[in-house]
Amino acid sequence: MPGSSNGSVTRSTLRQQIADALRDEVLAGRLQPGQEFTVKEIAEQYGVSATPVREALVDLSAQGLLEADQHRGFHVHEYSLDDFRGMIEARSLVTDGMFQALDAGHRIFQELDEPRTAAAVAGVRRRGEEAQRAAVAGDLTVLIGYDLRFWRELSVLFGNAYLADFLHRLRVQTWVCTVQHLRRLTDLRGSLWSGHPEVADALYRRDTATARKLLTAYNGHYLTLIEGLTAD
């Protein structure tokens, strides 16, 4: 029935909107690790029914951002330093596989004509420039948004939707893990990595050696920073 179909689409859209809003609340530090809440509380907060809220919370639990409490509700997942190390390793394995594909003449880069390739990479680079500006300014919220868009659009260039989704989910988890520590710093200027445009430029040149070096510095920078903050 047309009515049922439209209702299903509306509910699905609402479910995604709620999931996105709650993810942003976690990334902004307004929902803290370990903080508990119920489906009813979230439904009242957003003025919607319980069903799309419950579905959104289940989705975020499947992504590792929330945990379900038996018969009580949900709480924001608390990641450890070992979790962060594991995420860094997983991210490195994924991006290294992407770089190996590029070294081997990945079909997406072969099939795109030069103007289209340049336009696509230029779009990625613009996201990187915005991320760089936010990092230099110490604006963590803006940085996270552009960092996620940068890597999402970059991974899409490799033509594998599963790869792009997996890397995006992993990067969201990494930010959820680190944001609780980074927001303890009152001034983040000079503390946040800002080499996104250089990564885009290196990959456009197919200079994977430089791209790997940049990401090694990226991962090492944040690992050292978070280790120091957790020790404090």
Key terms:
10 helices, disordered N terminus, Arc Repressor Mutant, subunit A, 232 residues, globular, 74% helix, DNA binding
* Oligomeric category: single chain
- Gyration radius, rounded: 19 Å
Strand content of the residues, in percent? under 5%
- On the 0 to 100 scale, the average pLDDT is 87
| Count of separate DSSP helical elements | 10
What level of helicity do the residues show?
Answer: over 70%
Q: How far is the N terminus from the C terminus? A: 59 Å
Q: Give the domain tally.
A: 2
* Main sheet overview: 3 strands, antiparallel
The counted number of beta strands is 3
Per the principal axes of the C-alpha atoms, what is the gross shape? globular
Strand order of the largest sheet: 1-3-2
Protein architecture, described:
With 232 residues, this protein is mainly alpha-helical. A three-stranded antiparallel beta sheet has the order 1-3-2. The chain folds into two domains: 75 residues, Winged helix-like DNA-binding domain superfamily/Winged helix DNA-binding domain (Arc Repressor Mutant, subunit A), CATH 1.10.10; 151 residues. It has ten helices and three strands. Helix 6 runs antiparallel to helix 7. Helices cover 74% and strands 4% of the residues.
Reconstruct the topology from this structure.
Layout: H1 2-27, E1 36-37, H2 39-46, H3 50-62, E2 66-69, E3 73-76, H4 81-103, H5 107-111, H6 114-137, H7 140-156, H8 161-182, H9 196-204, H10 208-231
Antiparallel strand pairs: 1-3, 2-3
Helix pairs in contact: 1-3, 2-3, 4-8, 4-10, 6-7, 6-9, 7-8, 9-10
